[in-house]
TrEMBL record:
The chain crosses the membrane at residues 41-64, 76-98, 110-133, 366-385. This is DUF4407 domain-containing protein. It comes from the Bacteria. Residues 1-28 are annotated as: Disordered.
């Protein structure tokens, strides 16, 4: 029982203070839903403008990307590129407007999944018709320069391989010199009689000097390749230097590509020349001829014993020739078995093709090109989450449970207005 206050008038019952009650969760959720609706209403006031700006920006970069694909610079080409970019901008704006309005309003799982699949398909279409062209506009020149740099590396590897093979062929000169020296020493021994037992310059001596002369001529041919080989390699390096300079030189990349192509043709000729300067095939053929093409002189011994000794010595010389020839042939085969220089051909490439081929090197540009087209998808998901929160806050109650004070006043005013305009019913009427 509440004690009466001494200040209260006598005879009046004491006032009971009603206990504070917690606000129902439904009313709190309704107020939260109305707050979210006000936010969405304010955001809708400029969402269309934002979509238009994104679509226009994508269209501009699409226009730049289309121009890189078209060689002609006439009015019709400009009109065609402009028409395509406008179509892309309109398509992006309409597509994301549809998604932003319809997808958040879907309530069933089947309808949401259907529209999500449609959004995924539309996003792929946008990437196919716009994003790769945007990437070409953002990183097309850099991608073409990357293609030039990769081509320079390929040409450098081909030049170095051809030069290394040619140098390996030049090293065969030492093998040839060693064989020539061995035949020269044998001829000196024959001249003093230490070989066949009969001193003089007879048939055996002439066979030995004949093969020594052949090997000496081969050695001179190999030595004659040193100067052209060094000159070709130096010229190839000079061309490579000019090609490297073109990859980083200032100015339009299209003009640099034309000059780069001219230098590439010259360098390809240098690589072919280095292949021809390789003497390994020459040494292999000479080794084969060394044993097979022998002009045997007439035995000139004064006695049968001398002639028999000459014949026996010549047979030994021929056997030695075959051994030395096999040695030279094996050395030449090792050089010929070295990996050949790869055929490198420079193929001009457009900016759009280059940005696709070297996409891994331009991930930030690709990300920016795709993001400018697919950023509205994030807005769609934001609106979806917000609409779901609004529906959850309203609950399943009727409209009278979520009416605001202003809405209630408007409803009462409408009711009074209807009562005033309602015709007076006749009390005698049933």
């Amino acid at each position: 029982m509440n004690e009466p206050s001494p200040d209260m008038p006598q005879g009046l019952p004491p006032r009971e203070v009603p206990p504070l009650r917690a606000e129902p969760a439904e009313r709190s959720g309704a107020r939260h839903a109305r707050e979210l609706e006000r936010h969405l209403g304010w955001l809708d006031s400029f969402t269309g403008v934002a979509l238009g700006v994104l679509a226009a920006a994508s269209g501009i970069y699409t226009y730049l990307g289309v121009r890189t694909l078209l060689d002609d610079t006439g009015a019709w080409t400009t009109f065609a590129a402009l028409s395509y970019s406008i179509a892309v901008s309109v398509g992006i704006f309409v597509f994301w407007s549809y998604m932003m309005r319809l997808l958040p309003a879907m309530r069933s799982a089947a309808s949401r999944i259907g529209l999500l699949c449609s959004m995924a398909l539309g996003s792929l279409a946008i990437i196919a018709m716009s994003s790769w062209l945007n990437a070409a506009a953002l990183a097309g020149a850099a991608a073409v320069e990357q293609h030039l740099a990769e081509t320079v590396q390929d040409y450098q590897a081909s030049l170095e391989r051809a030069h290394a093979n040619a140098i390996a062929g030049q090293s065969l000169a030492r093998d040839v010199a060693r064989v020539r020296q061995s035949f020269g020493d044998l001829s000196e021994q024959e001249a003093t009689g230490d070989l066949s037992g009969f001193a003089g310059r007879g048939a055996v001596f002439r066979v030995l000097t004949q093969k020594a002369a052949e090997l000496g001529a081969l050695e001179e041919q190999i030595a004659a390749q040193d100067a052209p080989l060094s000159a070709a390699f130096a010229e190839g390096n000079a061309i490579l230097s000019r090609m490297r300079a073109l990859t980083v030189e200032a100015g339009p990349v299209e003009q640099r590509s034309v000059r780069f192509s001219e230098e590439a043709v010259r360098l390809a000729g240098i690589v072919a020349q280095l292949r021809q300067l390789n003497v390994a095939p020459l040494v292999a053929r000479a080794a084969q001829d060394l044993a097979e093409s022998v002009v045997l002189p007439e035995l000139d011994g004064r006695s049968d014993l001398a002639r028999s000794s000459q014949a026996s010595t010549i047979d030994s010389v021929l056997s030695l020739l075959r051994q030395r020839a096999e040695t030279l042939r094996g050395a030449a085969a090792e050089v010929e078995a070295l990996p050949p220089a790869e055929e490198t051909v420079y193929t001009p490439i457009s900016a759009a093709d280059a940005v696709i081929r070297y996409a891994g090197n331009f991930v930030p540009s690709w990300a920016g090109a795709i993001a400018i087209d697919l950023l509205p998808a994030v807005l769609v998901f934001i609106v979806m989450v917000t609409q779901a929160a609004i529906r959850a806050g309203r609950g399943e109650g009727g409209a009278e449970e979520t009416m605001t004070v202003a809405e209630l006043r408007a409803a009462l005013a409408a009711a009074r207005l209807l009562q005033e305009v309602e015709p007076q019913r006749d009390p005698r009427s049933p």
